[in-house]
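Lecture notes, part 5. Sequence design as translation. It can be helpful to think of inverse folding as translation between two languages: the language of shapes and the language of residues. The source text, in structure tokens, appears below.
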């Protein structure tokens, strides 16, 4: 297969041919149709993220078709994991514990130790299935599938058991520790993949898998305030402004000074105000999400939110945050980060996107032009999202 590989941080990707991968038990082999490019890819290529496997095939917004399935991935036999409080992994059993559910009535009643009645949740706790996932392990050959950044987790630490596998210390990431989608084929753990919603062509679906998912998690972390500030208006922001407007919120978009094209793009998607990142909005914000990897935006955003407001840092990497006076944090303002994503985030957002409906603006590049695509992203030469066409 053809692939673009990173051999050392700071070096351009190299087009090469690799042996076709084969799916191990629990994995699917995917023929890649499209793969979004992401600022995280830049951080991997530039060496800002220092725990990459090398050589590595980057890319973690992968849309493709299932070409083969490994042992244990069977059509129509999906496993479900529950997230209700008090539902704990037991002995590989399933618990359906809603009020009025009786044994022998075509439903399964509470069985594993630690499963409490009255919750109306289902717990499937076979080996490798973790609470909070709700993900199917059933995929069929030919099915369209999406592969996101989170490629696997340990399944047994406290974070995984609580449905917070995004914080697992042993988590592995697509295009970072696992070869990703800048290639014609890739393999992935079926439990961490998602069916692609109907109505989204391959190129338009790809940005949903990171820009959309991380943006959605960031939006949830920002709370339910009406006035939202977006610092940086790239792939994630152009998706999230559509969701926020659908929810009845106002979006104030901050860009680099002089980026008139970016500001016009934000207004075309429903932003009520646009301006440079170092300017104050016309009204105090309820929350701000910082998509740009620039630490100096944290004090700026704190000054823009009112007392009790939240500033969310959405990126995986950010330059150092400069010192700032306590007075702009005081008043119960909150600064928090977003780390990766959970499968629950993916399921919720991919169900929500067609309802809005989210429309992605994409700029296509052939696989062999991945370096040019990354350079264009770094320089801000396009609005929306960049996507590699692999097996188009």
């Amino acid at each position: 297969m053809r692939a673009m590989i990173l051999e050392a941080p700071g070096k351009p990707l190299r087009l090469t041919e690799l042996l076709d991968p084969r799916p191990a038990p629990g994995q699917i082999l995917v023929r890649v149709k499209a793969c979004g490019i992401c600022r995280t890819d830049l951080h991997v290529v530039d060496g800002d993220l220092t725990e990459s496997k090398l050589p590595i095939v980057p890319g973690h917004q992968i849309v493709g078709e299932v070409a083969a399935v490994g042992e244990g991935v069977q059509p129509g036999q999906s496993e479900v994991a529950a997230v209700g409080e008090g539902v704990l992994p037991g002995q590989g059993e399933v618990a359906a514990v809603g009020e009025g559910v009786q044994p022998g009535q075509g439903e399964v009643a509470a069985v594993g130790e630690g499963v409490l009645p009255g919750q109306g949740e289902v717990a499937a706790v076979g080996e490798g299935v973790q609470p909070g996932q709700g993900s199917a392990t059933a995929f069929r050959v030919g099915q369209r599938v999406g592969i996101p950044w989170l490629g696997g987790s340990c399944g047994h630490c406290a974070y995984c058991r609580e449905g917070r596998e995004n914080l697992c210390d042993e988590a592995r990431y697509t295009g970072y520790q696992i070869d990703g989608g800048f290639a014609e084929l890739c393999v992935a753990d079926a439990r961490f993949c998602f069916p692609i919603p109907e109505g989204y062509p391959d190129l338009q679906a790809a940005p949903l898998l990171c820009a959309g998912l991380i943006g959605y998690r960031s939006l949830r972390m920002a709370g339910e305030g009406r006035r939202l500030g977006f610092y940086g208006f790239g792939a994630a922001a152009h998706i999230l402004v559509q969701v926020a407007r659908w929810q009845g919120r106002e979006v104030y978009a901050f860009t680099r000074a002089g980026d008139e094209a970016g500001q016009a793009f934000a207004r075309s998607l429903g932003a009520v105000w646009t301006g440079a990142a170092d300017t104050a909005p016309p009204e105090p914000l309820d929350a701000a999400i910082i998509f740009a990897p620039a630490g100096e935006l944290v004090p700026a955003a704190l000054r823009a939110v009112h007392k009790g407001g939240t500033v969310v840092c959405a990126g995986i990497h950010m330059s150092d945050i400069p010192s700032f006076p306590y007075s702009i944090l005081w008043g119960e303002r909150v600064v928090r980060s977003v780390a990766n994503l959970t499968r629950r985030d993916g399921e919720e957002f991919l169900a929500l996107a067609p309802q809005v409906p989210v429309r992605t603006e994409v700029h296509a590049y052939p696989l062999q032009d991945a370096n040019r695509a990354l350079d264009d992203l770094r320089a801000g030469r396009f609005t929306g999202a960049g996507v590699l066409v692999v097996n188009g």
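The translated text above is only one of many valid answers, since several sequences can fold into similar shapes. The domain at 2-74+139-207+360-389 is CATH 3.90.180.10 (Quinone Oxidoreductase; Chain A, domain 1).
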